[in-house]
Amino acid sequence: MEKYQSVSFANPSALYKEALVNKEAVRESREKIAEVLNCRKEEVVFTSGGTEGNNLALLGVFEAHKNKDFTPHFITTNVEHPSILEVFKEIERRGGEVTYLTVNEAGLISSKNVLASIKTNTVLVSVMYANNEIGSIEPIREIGKVIKDWRQKNQTELPYFHTDACQAVLYLTIDVLKLGVDLLTLDGIKIYGPKGVGLLCVKNNVKISPYLFGGGQEKGLRSGTENVPAIVGLAFAIEKADSLRDSETFRLTQIRDYGIESILKSFPNSTLNGEKENRLPNNINICFTRLDSEFAVISLDVLGISASYSSSCRTLKDDSSSYVVGNLGKRDCALSSLRFTLGRETKKADIESLVEALKQVIK
Amino acid sequence: MEKYQSVSFANPSALYKEALVNKEAVRESREKIAEVLNCRKEEVVFTSGGTEGNNLALLGVFEAHKNKDFTPHFITTNVEHPSILEVFKEIERRGGEVTYLTVNEAGLISSKNVLASIKTNTVLVSVMYANNEIGSIEPIREIGKVIKDWRQKNQTELPYFHTDACQAVLYLTIDVLKLGVDLLTLDGIKIYGPKGVGLLCVKNNVKISPYLFGGGQEKGLRSGTENVPAIVGLAFAIEKADSLRDSETFRLTQIRDYGIESILKSFPNSTLNGEKENRLPNNINICFTRLDSEFAVISLDVLGISASYSSSCRTLKDDSSSYVVGNLGKRDCALSSLRFTLGRETKKADIESLVEALKQVIK
Q1: How many CB atoms lie within 10 A of CB A337?
Q2: Within an 8 Å CB–CB cutoff, is residue B48 touching chain A?
Q3: Pairs of residues, one from chain A and one from chain B, whose beta carbons lie less than 8 Å apart
């Protein structure tokens, strides 16, 4: 990244030599990423992050399909990230129609429910790959298959299938052909990559409108001078995630399960939010009956443990409860749950420190 | 910036200690910038760059005001950057109305023409502070005064006044009170700052809708995890631009004028695009009769000189002519002009190398 930060001010869309170096770096990064995604390189659209990718996917498909005689319909879940749910609120304000599927106790939706909700005006199904709060992994391949079958049977290109894969890429395949998705969102910040960059994979068949207008970069879908160092860093992070995927999944699954067992054993009134199966290897989310989770996060911080309650993106609002946990049918747990995120630096010994700290905070 | 790049993955909206360090850095950066802009700190909205700032300003004001019984009207110029002109095309597609004021030979509009164009449904006037191609400095304070008078006379808050100041901030004041603007766009990349970050100053009185939906960051106007290292870098770049402004303006004006004189003297068939007065100190833009500017840019590059024809953001399109130069009433020059941008590294001796190189390319 540093190299391209210092080939400083050459606009990659300009003609002179420094600009060509930048252009080449963007082209190479796009190619590397396309290989991991198993898509065409022109299907990779660089964005400023996951929120922007999700906005472009949903609003772009909405704006491309709405007209006086057609109300686009969308299907999604009630546990999506705010950068999906808030966009759907805006789509409803603009006259679109949205079906919110409910999840079961494990945080999962069923492909059967998706199929039952598809209507002739459904333009897009958007289901997150893995949940940011409870780590539940949705049955993306199954849903992709169900949608493909419906399209074939009805001889139509719609609905498209979008997945927000921001939380999944470190541990699960993001091969868009295998998954059967038409649009897929990634964020640099969630994969040890640079901040302020992400991408939306948009298959060539997708009819989509831009939402940022200007110089016409990124096939006209995302105008704005390309952030070359960040794009180079993103490609590096995605390649690294791809190569470490299997070993990190194996390693962290063991640490995670050890952590869950240790906590449940130490605190008889605690329960796991979500289930062990179909769960991201880096996610532990526990409900401690009647705990004030906001207070617990602050107390744990003093002891050197970074925990979260609900989603960081929700703590900006007055409401500090977790709608995700609440939607599992565990209303009381919405205000009493703690989330711990494991990563490349996490070792088994950290679990023991975590349990010790929890014992001090939760009496 | 490095410090905050390595406080890596703490979401500044979260609660734990690393997150609070990030939050504090964003708060401090916002305060520093507000001081230079002479605005309130909550009026600084961080964006991913200039294109996004311009999109938010125009589409945000449009969406906040349009309704079934009201068609918002906008006033702008025909030499704006594509990230303004393309957004206005989209606003027209969505049912808005836009007046494009023409510039005189020097690239300037008059405040009188702005006043004459204001209608009862005018919601926003958007005029660039300084042109990216020919460096012409528009009479922003005069326009600001004219708009303020109109609002007072008509007892209304509208129209708002927006300026795209991306090109101006290194050499001209960006005190929004002195300028009389309600919205002002800045971009990190144009001021020796980081890529992928910028800001829109939005005065508290402005009624504006978000265009990115999600976690509700930046007063809900720009959702998405804050890019902390980039924001810290942007604040540093703006402070540095502010402290170097007077000395760099003085130094570069002399080099620029020496350059313009040297070129005009060496090439009898050349003319200056725009005028010497009301021109950015870093901009030289010359029309060489019947020159193929695309070919000249490539030839100069071989000799170590980075030049541009038209705007970089336009070279993505098939049309390689400059609409800005064309709109000065110099149609023949649209395909025969070269632009040279001076900067902190530029010395007087560079002008001599430039003239030598030009002599080799233009026979």
Answers
A1: 31
A2: yes
A3: 202
CB contact under 8 A, A315 and B14: yes
Averaged pLDDT for residues B242-251: 96
- Beta carbons of B53 and B186 less than 8 angstroms apart: yes
Average pLDDT rounded to a whole number, residues B120-124: 98
Task: Determine the distance in angstroms separating the CA of B53 from the nearest CA of chain A, rounded to an integer.
Answer: 10
User: Which residues are CB-contacts of B356 (< 8 A; sequence separation ≥ 6)?
Assistant: none
Q: Give the pLDDT score at A314.
A: 47
Nearest CA among A143, A149, A126, A122 for reference residue A65: A122
**Residue B153 C-alpha, separation from nearest chain A C-alpha, in angstroms:** 35
pLDDT digits (tens, 9 = 90+) for A115-171: 999 999 999 999 999 999 999 999 999 999 999 999 999 999 999 999 999 989 999
Contact check, Cβ <8 Å, B86/A223: yes
Mutation to test the B interface, candidates A227, A295, A354, most B Cβ within 10 Å: A227
Domains of chain B: 2-241 (3.40.640.10), 245-361 (3.90.1150.10)
In terms of average pLDDT, the best of B181-185, B211-215, B336-340 is B181-185
Given a contact cutoff of 8 angstroms between Cβ atoms, the answer to whether A119 and A99 are in contact is no
| A316 band by pLDDT with thresholds 50, 70 and 90 | very low
Query: What backbone phi and psi angles, to 5 degrees, belong to A335?
Result: -105, 5
| Catalytic residue flag (residue B287) | no
B5 pLDDT band, cuts 50/70/90, is low
Across the interface, do B51 and A212 touch by the CB < 8 Å criterion?
A: yes
